[in-house]
Amino acid sequence: MSKTERLFHPRTLVIHPDFKNLEEFIVSIPERFQRNEGTVIHQGRNELRKMEYNGKEYVIKSFHSPHLINRFVYGIFRPSKAKRSYDHAEMLLKIGVGTPQPVGYMNIRSGLLFDKSYYISLLSTCPYIYDNLFTQQFDYAEEVFRAIGKVTARLHEHGYAHKDYGRANILFQKTPNGITIEIVDLNRMYIGPIDMKTGCKNFERLPATPQMHRWMAEEYAKTRNFDVEKCFELMRAYRSVQPGKIDNLY
Matching InterPro entries, A to Z (predicted)? Predict the structure, then answer.
């Protein structure tokens, strides 16, 4: 990168202490995206790519450039989505909730205006996502749903709720030590007190049969000292009716 480019397109780079040797790789990520390096995992408003570097695999999320007003806001006032992803991953790991190990992030500005940002993590070892529970047979499915209920409760007990808690953002695998759950796509998180109704509503984007909801509700309620039946009814209701229709259920 030339001196002129650094002047007009300054970069903010944050790297986890365990991965300081990756600075050269992280700085080169925009050029690697331009050359279409790596394997595309998801391509839409944002782009997710898997890349290998020095024998290890990483996942890089490239966040799209926002519209003009937000380019000014993110350039001066608000933390970027990449920074929020990194910070939230650190928070989750501290409270014992699984997520792929954060490696770092990079913000690129154009003068005072925000331009692009990239979030880098290790590739998860979990081979399955929540959606696979409906497309494949797992003889340990009950264990997975119970683990999701317990992990979600831990998140909520610490005052964190994923704002896009959907079928593609919960990863899982079975190991000799039990079920591993990892949560991804962390740039949008609610931080604050979470009561029973708010907590149960957080499951609304996860498809589930009554039995699946029962398993999740039992573990969620047990962890948070809530009534199991009320949690079960709330999860079912929030999944099946329009928002605002059950405000007076309890």
Answer: Kinase-like_dom_sf
